[in-house]
Amino acid sequence: MFALRNSTTWIVLAMALTMSACATKVARMDVNEVKDLTGNWNDTDSRLVSEEMIRDVLSRPWVGEFTRGHSKPPAVIVGEIRNMSHEHINVVTFVSDMERELINSGRVDFVASKTERQDIREERKDQDLNASEASRKAAGQEQGADYMLKGTISTILDTEGKKQVRFYQIDLTLISLADNRKAWVGTKKIKKFVEGSSVRS
Fold first, then answer.
1. Residues 99-127: pLDDT tens digits?
2. 3-state DSSP helix/strand/coil percent for the chain, to nearest 5?
3. pLDDT tens digits along 54-68
4. Which of 50, 82, 149, 165 lies 20 to 30 Å from 173 when distance is taken between CA atoms?
5. Please, which residues bridge with residue 184 across strands?
6. Which helix (H) or strand (E) holds 29?
7. Is the separation of the CB atoms in 184 and 174 below 8 Å?
């Protein structure tokens, strides 16, 4: 009986040790801290690329030229950003980062996206039926965009054994909606060296 009880105790202890060894550990980080675990595109890439590229597009002559010619800042919208890379990239986060930089710059007006505009139009329809005349917002008063920002994210992989160089190229183009003229073209390149057993071609 003692031997059985003793062996049961050891089994319970072993299970407890195994469970504690497999327990998930979480440590909070500063959101601006750089932490590359896999070498994939991450939040740091999204933030730094959006900051640098929006800073560049807003430093070019088109902003001042439009503002002087129309006595108002240009209205900009972010269009499709196509992920043509080898990995899954959360393009929504990248677009949000660029929108934030554009809006907070104070140099341009920013127009809601196609999805957002549809939601707002539905709300206006509802107001037309249910809101008081004094608070109702009329249709047909939207501000149209003057420029659309579009782009792609592409990658090139160079792999040998457990070593890999990952090259990311982000291309953005600002297009005038009035005449399809390209007002600005920007490129940002990122190169990462990744080494380890998890490297995939």
1. 999 999 999 999 988 888 899 999 999 99
2. 40, 25, 35
3. 999 999 999 999 999
4. 165
5. 174
6. none
7. yes
